[in-house]
Design a protein that fits this description.
The structure is a single chain. Helices cover 79% and strands 0% of the residues. By secondary structure, it is mostly helical. The longest helix has 21 residues, at 33-53.
């Protein structure tokens, strides 16, 4: 799904509203909540972790990304 790339970017950039929008787009396109979580949100945070380790991102960036991920998870929560 092309929106996974957009979803991943929105999490990395800490954009909560865009993250929520992309999660909803995925659900509307019949992508499972589990797939969105694993291939979108968790994958994005893995990238954030790597970028933090490499010094490309800093603690505030990680916190913003985590908040964006949390916003996406809140949309998915009722589906688990």
């Amino acid at each position: 799904m092309a929106a996974f790339e957009d979803l991943i970017k929105s999490v990395i950039d800490g954009e909560e509203s865009k993250t929520v929008d992309f999660v909803r787009v995925g659900l509307n396109n019949a992508i499972s909540a589990k797939e969105i979580l694993n291939d979108g949100l968790i994958r994005a945070m893995n990238i954030v972790g790597e970028k933090f380790k490499e010094g490309e991102l800093f603690v505030p960036d990680v916190l913003w990304a985590a908040q964006a991920m949390k916003a996406g998870i809140e949309v998915l929560r009722p589906l688990f």
